[in-house]
Specification:
Chain A: Pfam families: ABC_tran (PF00005), BCA_ABC_TP_C (PF12399). Chain A: This is Amino acid/amide ABC transporter ATP-binding protein 1, HAAT family. Chain A: Keywords: ATP-binding, Nucleotide-binding, Transport. Chain A: GO terms for molecular function: ATP binding; ATP hydrolysis activity. Chain A: InterPro entries: AAA+_ATPase, ABC_AA/LPS_Transport, ABC_transporter-like_ATP-bd, BCA_ABC_TP_C, P-loop_NTPase. The complex is a heterodimer of chains A (about 260) and B (about 375). Chain A has about 260 residues and is of the alpha/beta class. In chain A, about 40% of the residues lie in helices and about 25% in strands. Chain A contains ten helices and ten strands. In chain A, helix 7 links the parallel strand 7 and strand 8. With about 375 residues, chain B is mainly alpha-helical. Chain B has one domain. Chain B is about 65% helix and about 5% strand. Chain B has 16 helices and six strands. In chain B, helix 3 packs across helix 13, helix 12 packs parallel to helix 16 and helix 13 packs across helix 16. The radius of gyration of chain B is 21 Å and the shape is globular. The two termini of chain B are about 35 Å apart. Classes of the chains: A alpha/beta (about 260), B mainly alpha (about 375). Chains A and B meet through helix 2, helix 3, helix 4 and helix 5 of A and helix 1, helix 8, helix 9, helix 10 and helix 11 of B.
């Protein structure tokens, strides 16, 4: 049973083809990784999935709905959450407010009840604050709760961004380079949180990452891309042995030294 | 509550943490300021009271501009236009029909005040679709266009506005059958208007504060800080930009309707670009993205002419008439610009930021390094 089916997606900007012929499926509870050299089209796939770009061809079915042409906030409402390669947090707001924004769609009250902050508005705010505190607890963010995220260290900001996505209680989580630019210790922390998400919350994930150690340790299946096309999809062990993958990463003339 | 004694920042429920005034100093300061504001009318002269009453009204307008510009990040130079819509709606609804200007004689303050806000909000919603497609300077230019459109219409539509240089009476403030702009047995007109404007400012200030700490206010801030991330977490950008304009225009309409009540008379020339600039100055000097900053900025800008008027006595090159190097009126216009520049460079968080610094200094006193 798969939560996401992507088939034959093509995305081009005028003459530049960013993604072509991409098809894959992600199952319930699966951790699916997308890897490839810089410019292979990994982030473009994420932008297609979350509604930021509209592909020229192909279909994206997510939990029974067709996502192509849906605007990003509709896609979010359907249950897709993502983090960004370069942190996209609301840097003037506190950690709590950033996570509360993740719960935007879990609250329904409008501007008129917001003015009065009584009844429904107050009740929903308190309920969702409790939910946000559970995420804070889960990601061990307690000590930074009240600080504007712009003041936090990079590794913590990455974690807050994961928290904002988790606060949405998504049905599918897209992680765009969750450990980019982190030191070993921060990477280990993040790996632990990703495993926690999978084991305790059983949210299926798609992860784009350059840290091969992390990808090979965590992912159930890996899709390797090069120049916008998928060249191999399989388990980490299968992918590592594939001659096309080795060529994409190391180039033609290095084939003899590759394992 | 006993457990909290001596530990004012220990919260035992989210309701306490998220309360409107969630710290003891906030409660103390707010209470103190309210008491002070209620005592003031019995201590100072009527002309100062009138000035402060105008300042309170300006504060309502500045809160409105701050919602669209400071919170939602949509720079609007069109605030004067929405103030004008409110002013003319209020004046026409409450004024009496004369041969020269139209009026409907509905003098009850709550009625025409609400109507003024709603009419202005309606125009805000009309303009908003343009705002959704533009940002930054482009939006500023389009909203600037509104001011010139408005100036032309109000100059020509003399049955509504009385025409340039002549004007018409402002809205008639009547509350529960009492004319607020006339002295009576208990209070002078200035005292009554001061108190009513203060109460209105508190009401609209509290409502705005509730809005900005709610789901809606957070969505505004998200649109301002990073619109891409905002849409990806489920914020409908179009909807919230339109909403920000609607709320902002509503506040402008309310402020516009009240703005000339103290003076009693106004003409279409009042709603020029300078008025928009004054409101931008209030927001930037007070502190963008804060309600109390908007109030501080509005009071500061309203009191500024009064302060510059005292200058000829101190500085010989400033004159009250055209004889000196620079007149007080020129100096005033220069000061708006200089103050905006100085605040943007030195303290972008405005007067509110200065207050935060003072507060943080004393919080750790005597160990403030």
């Amino acid at each position: 049973m798969s939560i996401l089916q992507v088939s034959d997606v093509r995305l081009a900007f005028d003459g530049v083809v960013a993604v072509d012929g991409v098809s894959f499926e992600v199952g319930e509870g699966e951790l699916f990784a997308v890897i490839g050299p810089n410019g292979a089209g990994k982030t473009s796939i994420f932008n297609v999935l979350s509604g930021v770009y509209r592909p020229q061809r192909g279909s994206v079915r997510f939990a029974g709905q067709d996502l192509v042409g849906m605007r990003p906030h509709r896609v979010a409402a359907a249950g897709m959450a993502r983090t960004f390669q370069n942190i996209e947090l609301f840097s003037h707001l506190t950690v709590v407010d950033n996570l509360m924004l993740g719960r935007h769609n879990h609250m329904r009250y409008g501007a008129l009840s917001a003015f009065l902050w009584l009844g429904r508005a107050r009740r929903e705010e308190l309920e969702n604050r409790a939910a946000v505190e559970r995420v804070i607890d889960f990601l061990e963010l307690e000590q930074w709760r009240r600080l504007p995220v712009g003041l936090l260290p990079y590794g913590v900001q990455k974690r807050v961004e994961l928290g904002r996505a988790l606060a949405m209680e998504p049905r599918l989580l897209l992680l765009d380079e969750p450990v980019a630019g982190m030191n070993v210790e921060e990477t280990e922390d993040m790996a632990r949180f990703i495993l926690d998400v999978r084991e305790e919350l059983s949210i299926p994930m798609i992860m784009v990452e350059h840290d091969m150690g992390l990808v090979m340790d965590l992912a159930d299946r890996v899709m390797v891309m090069d120049f916008g096309r998928p060249i191999r999809t399989g388990t980490p062990a299968e992918v590592q042995q594939d001659p096309d993958v080795i060529r994409a990463y190391l180039g033609e003339q290095h084939r003899s030294v590759a394992p | 509550m006993k457990a909290l004694k001596g530990r004012p920042e220990l919260y035992t429920s989210y309701a306490q943490d998220m309360a409107f005034l969630n710290t003891r100093p906030k409660r103390a300061w707010t209470g103190g300021l309210v008491v002070f504001a209620l005592v003031v009318p019995f201590l100072i002269t009527d002309d100062l009271l009138q000035l402060l009453a105008t300042g309170f009204v300006a504060a309502i307008g500045a809160i409105g501009l701050n919602i669209v510009t400071g919170y939602a990040g949509q720079v609007s130079l069109g605030h004067a236009f929405f103030l004008a819509i409110g002013a003319y709606t209020g004046a026409a609804l409450s004024g009496s029909q004369t041969g020269r200007v139209i009026g409907f004689g509905i003098t009850s303050l709550p009625v025409w005040l609400l109507a003024s806000g709603l009419v202005a909000a309606f125009f805000g919603v009309l303009v908003a679709p343009v705002a959704v497609r533009l940002r930054g300077l482009y939006l500023a230019i389009v909203t600037l266009g509104l001011v010139f459109l408005g100036e032309h219409v109000f100059r020509e539509w003399t049955s509504l506005t009385g025409g340039p240089g002549i004007g018409r009476p402002a809205a008639v403030p009547e509350l529960f059958g009492v004319r607020l702009d006339r002295d009576n047995a208990l209070f002078t007109a200035a005292q009554q208007l001061y108190l009513v404007m203060f109460v209105l400012l508190v009401i609209f200030g509290v409502l705005a504060r509730n809005l900005v700490r709610s789901r809606v206010g957070r969505a505004f801030a998200a649109v301002r800080d990073r619109d891409l991330a905002a849409s990806v977490i489920g914020v409908d950008l179009t909807r919230y930009k339109v909403l920000a304009f609607a709320v902002s225009s509503f506040y402008a309409g309310v402020a516009g309707a009240l703005l000339f009540v103290v003076n009693g008379f106004f003409d279409p020339g009042s709603f020029s670009l300078l008025l928009s600039v004054q409101y931008i100055a209030m927001v930037l000097i007070g502190g963008a993205g804060t309600i109390s900053g908007a109030v501080m900025g509005a009071l500061f800008i309203t009191l500024l002419p009064r302060i510059t008027r005292e200058l000829p006595a101190v500085l010989p090159f400033v004159s009250g008439d055209a004889t000196g190097v620079i007149t007080v009126f020129q100096l005033e216009a220069v000061l708006y610009g200089v103050l905006i520049i100085v605040f943007l460079i030195v303290e972008p968080r405005g007067l509110f930021g200065i207050w935060v610094r003072v507060r943080n200094y004393w919080r750790t006193w005597p160990f403030s390094y």
